[in-house]
Specification:
By secondary structure, the chain is an alpha/beta fold. It contains 17 helices and 15 strands. It is about 45% helix and about 15% strand. The strands form 2 sheets. It has an 8-stranded mixed beta sheet, sandwiched between helices. It has a 7-stranded parallel beta sheet with strand order 3-2-1-4-5-6-15, sandwiched between helices. Helix 3 packs parallel to helix 15, helix 5 packs across helix 6 and helix 15 packs antiparallel against helix 16. The radius of gyration is 22 Å and the shape is globular. The structure holds ligand 3DD. Ligand 3DD binds next to helix 3, helix 8 and helix 15.
Length: about 425
């Protein structure tokens, strides 16, 4: 029996899901194939994902393939209650509502695990970690899992290295058709979307500081630049910093950026990238946001210690009046601003991310018992198939290699 905020929101959610279905041609094509083949028949899938209109399209696709699906939210603020209601009405077992506290968050995970999954579908690693640490009795039935995001893949590679991982995980995040598009173009657009929906401030002319020049940071920097911001990058990796310089961005330590920054976004996957020392030296009125998976990148607990008072001045905008007299605006409690203050990435990029999820679930079933308890890349056959399906959906045609060209590319004899 599902537990959602309010089932009466289902109709509004259903329309949003239809909107997403109209913009996710690849996943809908896979759904048709799954419906015909019943590719996931008899499988129980336990998912812990951000509950958005795009995730709903994935859940319906898995169900169409014959799977029993149970879903919990992978972040306390990213669940869209109307989507959760619509999915519950569609027969998906949903345990999630926006604003769960820590105890409720793990209560939802446990309800989903009560369905004794064959496959787990995770975003950030909390579900898989829960099974390995608190629900070990479930491990014997699990044949494999998938992981959506960078943070989760890092956790599972660490588990594998410690010999703690007890079943195979497909790193969906590492598929080209995922991170090159979702992480870069998705995070780029949805982060700006979250900041604008929360603050409606002008981006043009602002000093926009992006911490982390990975695929997410690159996307955010690119989009902020496109809107006329003066983009500044902070990094710890010399190669990524060099790339940012060559891409035309200013690069400097955070200790310098805080003096000039108007808007700050973290996208590093690491903790305490913005500390109280940084905040104290920011300009009064600075806006700080996080776009990384967990809310560790901004030291929010530390911020509270240097604060005289705080108030919610707009939805998703907390105004901190610091003891030094400055005002700082924290978005979405320091949680991932794109999903907490907006709707996450556009359907068109989640189309590919979730096509990887659906086809990886089918791959795990087809290879039941043959995979070892380690982290696997998405098979390149699946990656390329998704790219081709997306090009076809976009009406884009490309050239093909002639036999002679294929031979040339694999030969070494032909030279100058
Ligand atoms: N993520 C971003 N937008 C999302 C959406 N519209 N639906 C579901 C999940 C969404 C998070 C993913 O990008 C995940 O791939 C990540 O965090 O890397």
């Amino acid at each position: 029996m599902s537990k959602v905020k309010d089932l009466s929101l289902a109709e509004a959610g259903r329309k949003k899901i239809q909107w997403a279905e109209d913009h996710m041609p690849v996943l809908m094509k896979i759904r048709k194939r799954f419906e015909k083949e019943k590719s996931l028949k008899g499988l129980t899938i336990a998912a812990c994902l951000h509950i958005t209109k795009e995730t709903a399209v994935l859940m319906k696709t898995l169900k169409a393939g014959g799977a029993k699906v149970a879903l919990a939210g992978s972040n306390p603020l990213s669940t869209q209650d109307d989507i959760a209601a619509a999915l519950a009405k569609e027969g998906i077992e949903v345990f999630a509502w926006r604003g769960v506290n820590k105890k409720e968050y793990y209560w939802c995970l446990d309800r989903v695990l009560d369905f004794k999954p064959d496959i787990t579908m995770d975003d950030g690693g909390d579900l898989v970690t829960r099974i390995h640490m608190k629900r070990k009795e479930l491990l014997k039935k699990v044949i494999g899992g998938t992981e959506e995001t960078t943070t989760g893949v890092i956790r599972f590679r660490a588990m594998e290295k410690d010999g703690a991982l007890k079943y195979p995980i497909i790193a969906v995040n590492d598929a080209y058709t995922k991170y090159l598009f979702d992480n870069r173009y998705g995070t780029g657009q949805s982060t700006i979307d979250g900041i604008l929906r929360a603050t409606s401030v002008l981006i043009a002319g602002k000093n926009f500081v992006v911490s982390g020049y990975g695929w997410c940071g690159r996307g955010i920097a690119m989009r902020a630049k496109g809107m006329g911001a003066n983009v500044i990058i902070t990094e710890v990796d010399p190669l990524r910093a060099l790339e940012a310089v060559m891409d035309g961005f200013r690069v400097m330590p955070m200790s310098e950026a805080v003096k000039i920054g108007d808007i700050f976004v973290t996208a590093t996957g690491d903790k305490h990238v913005i500390t109280t020392r940084h905040v104290k030296n920011m300009k009064s009125g600075a806006v700080i946001a996080n776009s990384g998976h967990f809310n560790v990148e901004i030291d929010v607990e530390g911020l509270k210690k240097i604060t005289k008072s705080k108030r919610m001045i707009r939805p998703n905008v907390e105004e901190y009046l610091l003891k030094n007299g400055k005002k700082i605006y924290l978005l979405a409690e320091g949680r991932l601003v794109n999903l907490a203050a907006a709707e996450g990435h556009p359907s068109e990029v989640m189309d590919m991310s979730f096509a990887n999820q659906a086809l990886s679930a089918r791959y795990i079933l087809k290879n039941k018992g043959r995979l070892e308890p380690k982290v696997y890349k998405v098979p390149s056959k699946i990656d390329l198939e998704i790219a081709r399906l997306k090009l076809k959906a976009l009406g884009v045609k490309i050239d093909t290699l002639t036999k002679d060209q294929t031979k040339y590319l694999s030969s070494w004899k032909e030279g100058t």
